[in-house]
Structure formats: structure tokens, C-alpha cells
Amino acid sequence: MEKGLSGGAQSGDEASHLGIRPLWMQVYLPNLIVATGQGAMLPILVFAAKDLHASPAVATGIVAVNGLGTMLFDLPAGRIVARLGEWWSAWIGTCMICAGLAGCLVAPSVPVLAVSVFVQAAGWAVWSLVRMTHLSRVAPVRVRGRALSLFGGVIRAGNVLGPFLFVVAAAGHADTSAAFLIYLACVVVGFAWLIVARDRTDHGAAAARSERIRPLQVVRDNARGLATSGTGSLGISLLRGSRAAIIPLWAAHIGLDSSSAATIYAFSSVIELAFFYPAGIVSDRWGRRAVALPCILLLSVGHLLVPFSHTFWTLFAVALVIGFGNAMGSGIVMTMGADLSPAVGRASFLAVWRLISDGGTAAGPLVDSAVVAIGSIVMAGPVVGALGLVTAAVVAVGLQEPPHLAGRARSVPESAPPP
After folding, report:
1. What is the per-residue pLDDT across 237-285, written as a single tens digit (0 to 9) for each?
2. Does domain 19-199+207-398 have CATH number 1.20.1250.20?
3. pLDDT at res. 96
4. Where are the domains of the chain?
5. Are 238 and 383 in contact (CB under 8 A)?
6. Is 43 exposed, middle or buried (0-12, 13-18, 19+ CB in 10 A)?
7. Which contiguous run of DSSP H or E holds residue 312?
């Protein structure tokens, strides 16, 4: 792969395609299948909780549990990947997701649903870290932005396909269990695909590691990058996490059903598919700030506009603004993490990085839930939007660019050294 990238006879675009092409069967397509299932589940978590007689604040908290489970298991996931290697860790993550979804299907009460959502979210933490570690290891540095934007893009594609798949499967009956069944089937199919398509010559994927790098040491060794790029990652993830809660929550508030909420969420994700690869090109050419800043600003504006939407179509328009902002930041959180990740201790660093970003994902719905509980549902969107604007100011001033892009506004050179 690297040899093809360094050959002088190939153009930059040809080299880029050669660098990314092997990843389609081994990384992108399996993850697209799994993300499709997740996309079917996310918009209906609020409704699944309400079916068990949860209040709006508690139902929003169930969405937060999904992010919280991923966040709390990020560091254990890092230890699992470091000790067992990518391949066996993928098995563990898959089994955990399946066990959690089985619990969601039979949950008789809100506490059981919350535990089951937590378990599947913890499994997603392992699965995601395995995929991110693999891409950070094998993606050539000059196309890293595009490689990770594509990875974010297939997750967005799943967010589009999943809700539509749920709408078709539910057939107008608003049966939330259909979403959990879709996710379970997608996880099984996606992992089976991974087994068949994996590169059996890649011994690094199966090799167990012996690194014992503690999280506090990771923080000390990478303090500057975590303080600057990490703040941007936290803010983007907070806005994205809130998006998964605020759209269904506001849809329920204005009297829409779960199918309508899923349709709005799906079309919000459709717009992301048109921009995830251009976002990667911008990131590789003009730097990470050129992608992160528009992403945060548009997500923030979308949240600020939520209280002004009182019909299906006005909420639909606001969701499109949020979706466009999310598209502008496709893969940016993973790309910034890959830029900073060291060759030795990569899994441990990326576990800390995911803890930061997943902390934001969990905090978004928690902020929404807290505002609804102590104040008014009308204020949930504006509060998160205001937090996003503060993050935008930090990113504009302090976001750390990788060495091969710092201070440049042109294409990445062929000989760009890895960070």
C-alpha cells in the first residue's frame, strides 16, 4: 500500500485511491452494515422508553445511557485491544452488542432497558476502538483525512439507511422492537462479512500487545494536544450527542410519532452523504480547523433554531441544518485523534481520545435531560447551542494542526512525514 503511494508514476488522486481501496471490503462495508442497525435504533430510544411509561426527562436519559455506556467502557476497551489485539477484541465487542440488544427486546421495565442499552453501548465502544485503531495503523498519512472521513461517512450512511429500514419494517405500527431486531441482524451480518473479508496477511490485527500505558500517563504525555484538539473533539461530540436526543424529543413534544421522528432523522443524515468525502479532502488540504469550525457553528445554529419549529416541516428544515453541520465534520474527531496517536501505545491513547469524545456524546443528551427536568424543554436546544458557540471560539484560536499541515494552505506533499 505504502509503496503505491510513494511511486512517482502515479498521480496524487490515483495514489489516494490505491491507499483507500483495500479498506472498503475490510473496514468500510462491515461497518456500514453495523451502523445501519445502529441508525435504526437511535431515533427510537426515546419512544422505547416512553412505551415503558418513562417521563420525557427519563426517556431522554435513556439516550444519554447509550453515550454513557460507550464512554465508561472506552478505557476498558483500550485495555482489551492492547491485550488481545484487534481480531479477538472484535469478537468481544460483537458479543456484547448482541447481548445488550437481546435485553432491549425483552426489557419489561425502564431500568432493564437502561442496563441493556448500556451493555450494547459498551460493546460498541470495543467495536469502534478496534476499527479506529486499525485505520490509524494502516491508513497512509497523506490520505488519512479522507480515509477517516469515509469511515465517518459509512456511519452516516447507516444513519440514513437504518431509520428508513425501521420505517419499512414497522409498516406504520410504530413497533420499537423492530429497531432492535434490525440492529441485531445487522451486527451478525456485519461481523460475518468481517470474518470473510479480513486480510489474513495482516498479522498486526491478530497480535496481542503487552503495553501497560496508564490513562494518566497518556494524558501527561499528550497534555497540549488533548487540551486543544481534545476540546474541539469534546464540543463536536456534545453537539452530535444532543442531536440524537433533541430531534426525537422535540418531535414527541410537538405531537409527532416515532415513524415521523425517524423519517426526519434519516433525511437529516441524507445530506451528510453528499459532503463526507469533500470534508476529508478539505481536511487533508487546508487543515483540520477548516472542517471543525464550520461543523461546530452549523450544529450550534441548528440547536438554537429547534424551539422555533412547531410542525413536521419546520423541524425537518432545522434537522437539515444540523445534518449539514454534521456532514462538514465527517470523520474529523477520529482524524484529530489519529494525528495525535503515537506508534507505541496507540490503542491506549485512542482509548483516552474516545473517552473524551464519547464523554461529549453522553453529555449532550444529559444536558438536554437536565434542562428539561429543571427548566423547560424549550430551552434544551438553545443551551446546547450556546455551549457549541463557546467551543467554536476555542477551536478558532487553539486547534492543533498536524505537523505536515501546520501553516499551509495547499495540497499535502507526497513526502509528508507521519505525525
Report:
1. 999 989 888 888 899 889 888 788 878 877 887 777 777 778 778 888 8
2. yes
3. 97
4. 19-199+207-398
5. no
6. buried
7. helix 312-328
Specify the pLDDT at position 315: 95
Structure confidence at residue 26 (pLDDT): 80
> Which alpha helices (DSSP H) does 140-275 contain, by range?
144-170, 177-197, 203-206, 215-221, 223-253, 258-273
Q: Which contacts (CB < 8 Å, 24+ apart) does range 315-322 have?
A: 315/247, 315/250, 315/251, 315/254, 315/256, 315/264, 316/264, 316/267, 319/247, 319/264, 319/265, 319/267, 319/268, 320/267, 320/268, 320/271, 322/243, 322/247, 322/268, 322/298
Contact 63, 121 (CB under 8 A): no
Largest CA distance in the chain: 65
Stated pTM of the model: 0.70
The candidate with the shortest Cα–Cα distance to 265, out of 279, 292, 287, 244, is 244
What does the chain come to in residues?
419
The residue among 177, 313, 159 whose CA lies nearest residue 251 is 313
Give the residue among 25, 142, 172 at the shortest CA–CA distance from 411: 142
**376: which 3 cell numbers?**
423547560
- Chain-centre distance for alpha carbon 107: 26
HEC string for 230-255: HHHHHHHHHHHHHHHHHHHHHHHHCC
What would the mean pLDDT of 81-105 be, rounded to a whole number?
Answer: 92
Burial classification of residue 69, based on how many CB atoms lie within 10 Å of its CB (0-12 exposed, 13-18 middle, 19 or more buried): buried
Average pLDDT over residues 62-75: 86
For 287, list phi and psi in degrees, rounded to 5. Answer: 105, 165
Q: Could you read off the pLDDT of 309-336 as tens digits, one per residue?
A: 999 999 999 999 998 898 888 788 888 8
